[in-house]
Write the C-alpha cells for this entry.
Amino acid sequence: MSRYDGELSVDSVTDWVAMSILSLPRIRYYSKESMAQDFLLKSKPHKVKVIFFSQTGERATPFIRQAAKNYSAYATFAFVLWQEGESSLWWNMLGVESAPAIVFLKETGVKPVVHHGYVNSSLFVDIMEKNKYHVLPQLRSVTSKELGCDPRGFSRAGKDTKIWYCIVLVGRYSKELNEMRETMRRIQETLSNDRDLTAVDQDLPSAPALLALKQKRLTFTWLDGEAQKSYCFFYINSENSYETCGPMRDITDTAQLFIVRYDRNDTENVGKQPTSKFSELYNVETDPAAQLVAKYNGSNKIEQIVQWISEIIKDGDSKNLPSFKTRTPELVPEDADSTWSSWSEGTVSPSRGLIHRVKSFLNKVHDYSGDPRVGPFLLLAALISFGSVWFKRSQVAQSSGPDRSSQKSNEPERSNQQTREPDQSNQPNAKDATMRKRRTRPRNDLVPPSMTDVDPKDAYQAEFSDSDTG
C-alpha cells in the first residue's frame, strides 16, 4: 500500500501517481539561463532534443512521460515555462510563437521542427515517430535494423526485398565530418523529392539512386568511427584507416564514404550450426545477407557523389556480382550505461527518500495503533512466548532429575568397595609419605649442614677475664 502525503493539487497528485505508482520518469523544467548549459550541452549528440513549452508550469502528463521512457534511446526531453517577456528569445532561437508548443532540435544546421497546440497520446506518438531520427541518422546498435543497415536484418522495403543498399559516412567528430554530413544531407534532400519518375527522368544519371530511395532500398547514415572502431576497421580496411577509425592518433581527421550492397537469399539451405557450448570456438555462423563494399575516392561535389551512387546501384541491380558472406562485428551500444538520471527516472534524493520512508513508517504505526485486531494479536504473541519459555524450562528440569537419581544409586556401591579394601585405601604407601614430606619440608632442609651449624657434645662457653694485667 502506498499513501500520498503531499499537497492535494492536480499537479502534485499526478506527479506522485506517475512516479510512485507507474514508475514513469520526471521531465525537468529549465529556465533560459540553464537551458544551454544543463540541457543542450549535456545531452548526447546522437539523440534528438525535445522541448515542451508550457503556459501553466504543470508537470508532464503520464502519456508524455510514457513516451519519454519509450523513446529514451532516441531523444532527450525538457520543459520550459512560457513567459511573455522571453517570447522574442524563443522566437529567434527556436521559432516558437506561443505556448503550448513542442520543438524537435536535430543536428547542427538543421531548422528546428515546431508543433504548436495541444496534443493527445496518439498524436504525440505519431509526431515522435516522424522526428525520432536526425535528418542524417546515426548508425547505432538500436537503429541499424530499422535503417536497413544490418546484414542480420532486412531492408526498409520489407522482408521480400532481395537487394538493398546502405551509404555510410564514417569518421571522428571533427570539422571535416560535419562538412561531409552537411553534404550528405543535401544529397538526401536532392534525391528525396516527391515527384514521380517519368520516361524522361529514367535517362537521368541519378535515376537509379532516386528510384532506390523511393523504394526504400537506399538509406543514408553516418557512423562514429571512434566509438565504433571495430565496425569501422572492418569496412575501412586501408593504410589510412587510422585517420578515420579509433581514437585520434594524428592531427589529421579524414571522413570517408562507402556503400554496402546487401544480398539476402532466403531460399538458400544453410546448414544447421552446432549448438554445443564449444561450437563458437570452431564454427562461427555467418550473416544471412551477403555484402559487397565499395569506397568513394572522389571529390566532395554533390553531383559527382550522386553519379557514383547511381552507378553502384545500377551495376548492383543488373549484374550478377559475387556474394561474400562473413560475420560483421557488433555495434557497440552508445548508451552502455543507459540509466536514467535521478530526475528523469523519477527517483528522489537520499535525504528526501529517507524522510519519505520515515513518514511512511509513522503512518503505518498510526494506522495499526487504531486497529482493534492489534490487541488480540499482541496477547496471543505474549502467550506463545511465555509458553515456549515454560516448555524449555520444564524440559531442563526433567532432564536433570534422572542424573541425580543415578548419582544416589551409585553412592552405596562406592561405599561397599571402600569397606572391602580398607587396608589398601586407608594406609598410604611409603613412597607417598616420602613425597608428602618433601612437599612440606622447607627448601633449606634439602641443603646439607656445614660443620659450623652443629655444636659438639663436649663444647662449652669460654669466659674472658676483665683484667688486662698479669
Remarks:
- The longest strand covers residues 163-171.
- The beta strands are 29-30, 48-54, 75-81, 101-105, 113-116, 163-171, 218-224, 256-264, 289-295.
- The chain is about 40% helix and 10% strand.
- Confidence is low (pLDDT under 50) at residues 269-274, 278-283, 337-352, 422-427.
